[in-house]
Amino acid sequence: MPQIAAVRPPPAACQNVGVIATAAKSARRALVTGGSGDIGAAICRALAAHGHFVHVHAHGRSDRAQALADEIRAGGGRAQPLAFDLTDAGATRAALDATGEAGPIELLVHNAGIRDDAPMAGMTEDQWRRVIDVSLHGFFHVTQPLLLPMARGRFGRIVCVSSVAAQLGNRGQTNYAAAKSALHGAAKSLAREMGSRGITVNVVAPGIVAAGMAAQAFSAEQIRDVVPAGRAGTPEEVAALVAFLCGEDAGYVNGQVIGINGGMI
User: Fold this and answer.
1) Which terminal CB of the chain, N or C, has fewer other CB atoms within 10 Å?
2) 111: Cβ–Cβ under 8 A, 6 or more apart, which residues?
């Protein structure tokens, strides 16, 4: 089963952000957790291109978040880095409170996640807990404080980035698959709770994406064997779907787990 791999530095340029931003229907404030990675960076660029102000979250890669924010601003968009530890409830709340002084966060993309692969028979409790903490507990820490402000404004878009591993399972990834599949249930339940307030909650589940180590992890033949489309996806394709779900036109898409995997499932 394919694995979604880690991150690489963002491309050197973000072009035409200012031009596309002028066509935005409604500019809002967005927060992208794990925004310094390949997929996260593509999501940040896509949201900025739609005119939104993007908070690029990072924890261990704050330099990449700063570089991406600089790149977006250089292209005419609006962005700033935001560093905090998602697994720390107090630190997350403090960061969100400080950010909220400039205006409410109305778009939340929970993209942050880590892998620490091992067969479960040999997996340590720390490996299990670390992966769960970032994806699942991190989702609660960053989402819960934003819900009432979204409800008061009667608008919100929450998108979780999951994985095909959560839908199919994968050897050596019981912790990762458990963390990501738990987001599916959380998103569906939260969608029912908040849907009447104009808030949607959806999940995007990528398959093999040509990002970071995944670009070298699978040969073209391996990809053809497991992906009906015969190729890996791109971070930009994932970002385009996320940007749509964050938009005005996606108001009736709620509580869904949407695969973007070339037909793997």
Assistant:
1) C
2) 32, 33, 34, 35, 37, 39, 40, 43, 161
For residue 239, CA distances in Å to 2, 80, 122 come to 20, 18, 35
∠ Cα 31 34 37 (to 5°): 125
CA distance 41 to 32: 9
CB 3 within 8 A of CB 115: yes
Provide the CATH number for the domain around residue 40.
3.40.50.720
User: What total of structural domains would you count in the chain?
Assistant: 1
Establish whether 176 is a catalytic residue.
yes
State the DSSP string of 80-92: EEEE--TT-HHHH
Instruction: List pLDDT tens digits, range 29-79.
Output: 999 999 999 999 999 999 999 999 999 999 988 999 999 999 999 999 999
Rg (CA), the chain: 17
pTM of the model: 0.90
- What is the span of the domain harbouring residue 122? 28-260
Work out the pLDDT band at 218, boundaries 50, 70, 90: confident
Q: Which of 53, 84, 155, 176 is catalytic?
A: 176
Q: What are 237's two structure tokens?
A: 């394709």
